[in-house]
Hints:
The chain is 56% helix and 14% strand. By secondary structure, the chain is α+β, with helices and mostly antiparallel strands. α13 packs antiparallel against α14.
Amino acid sequence: MGKDIIKGDFESLVNNIQSTSNALLEDARLVINRNVTARAWLTGFYIVEYEQQGNDRAKYGEGLLKRLSERLNDKSFSLASLKSFRQFYLYYPQLAEPVVRYLFAKSGKSQSVISLLQSSGNFDVIKSQSPISQLPLHKSDTVSGDGFAMMTTEGEVIPVPQMLFNRLSFTHISKLIHIGDPMKRAFYAIEAMRGPWSVRELQRQIDSNYYERSGWSKKPELLASKVSERAERPTFREELKSHYIFEFLGLSAKNVIEEDELEQALIDHLEEFMLELGMGFCLEARQKKLLIDDRYFKVDLVFYHRILKCHCIVELKAHRLDYADTAQLNMYLEYYRRHYMRPDDNPPIGLLLCTEYGQEMVEYVVPNTDPHLFVAQYELQLPSKEKMKDFLMRENRG
């Protein structure tokens, strides 16, 4: 076999390396996603089982998840994550079978998890001791022709559990579990699998009310065809940006560059530039993660200005100024007003920098509640627009 590969031409060498790399990357993607999903589901299972049968559950009551998060002391088990894991199990109890199938197929430490599940007495799949290949889905359930949807004996349409486990990452699922309507949730899950859709595409379709538009449309098949043509597909690189995967692997956002090269370089240099100016800036955070509803947002740079006594939120966009950029920055400012502003602080200031192809725009978003005295002081203490324009032009040329 080795001799045959060596005898091939250069293009064969390239193709062999690329094919092998792609196959192993895809396998790594699946393994990581399945591990993250299995852990999330099992965590939700443990929590719900404890809530129902724990000997001392009344002792913790409504504060259970908070106490649990504090005791685990792991950022991957934050209060928000534990709530999501619990909801995940409640919405998808039928994932017991694919999760157990997956654990059976693995070796080593997974066996201890299986033993723990066996002791719970809730898993017929384990107790049956049937070979994995012979375990039925559900004899009474009807699966659709494409294998993504199934109808339960109660007449409810749900995603096929094995397909849901295999085709969607937990980042996808984290978007779905915030949809209260079961039919609507099933619709987006099935369409995301059928696409397949990236996480961003799933969120985009939820935000654009695709479910409702499909119901209103006289030709939903035509609408589905148009959506499919334009849909963004999942990629290994995009999926690895998930904070669930970061936390599962013990990484932080700093371990992976999420912006394009221009924007990342600008942020790196902007941090140095602002600190070199002095003028009271103290760097507080880079890529500050904010959880708003069920979505994470990241602020490029956060400074605290010791003279103005306020936070300075800096967002940098490698494109022309867009109204959406201003709306996003204003959302960050309001978040900081509510969650970080102390009684003796002034309202936060937003600095939005945009650049594209040599065209520059520099905008300060002034807090609406500022007194005139603070505005005047703010104009004196912050770097001038001319300095910021010079910085952008230098970086854009460099």
